[in-house]
Amino acid sequence: MYEKCFNQKFMKECLLLFLSGWLAVSSNAAKVDTVQIYSRSMNKSFPALIFKPEIEKKTQQKFPVLYLLHGHSSDYAGWNYIESQLKNWADDHRIIIVCPDGDYSSWYVNSPVRRNSKFETYIAREVVKYVDDHYPSMKDKTYRGITGVSMGGHGAIYLALNQPDVFGIAGSISGALDILPFSDEWNLQEVFGPLKGNEKIWKKNPEYTL
Known about the structure:
With 210 residues, this protein is an alpha/beta fold. 29% of the residues lie in helices and 17% in strands.
């Protein structure tokens, strides 16, 4: 499992490096919301954590948004163990951080096998729309980034390449960027179908082919 390839310290350092390369630094006091975001494409709601910097009263401040995708067998709440760091980063970088739920094994794609699993549409369209409708976000893709760990690292690069009008910057932390050698692992066949007989579908998903 890719999660075994890194520790918490490494992941924190990677996230901080990603942020440092994107945004300038200041400081304040962030808050976190736990919300339910409805998916019309799946007819279901999924939870998310949203970290927002403190907003000065009577201002029209707008903020860049970072979407942070969890790994396989985890969920949106898997980021709770670095909640204090995420609050600090939201404040220090004056950025909204969104941790959506991607199901334990969605791989952040519209599955050709699981007809009710449309997480590419959900993350790139429905979650982004929710955030833009409910939070003071900068709505231009230049100010909308996406990253994640393991399965989430795959999802971040996959979504950025497939949805170039939505995300302006992407990063991957220990991302599973080539899934073909691991076709028997991590519920991949439940998402893409058996490799044999579905080669065309599988070969559309490794990031190097995109």
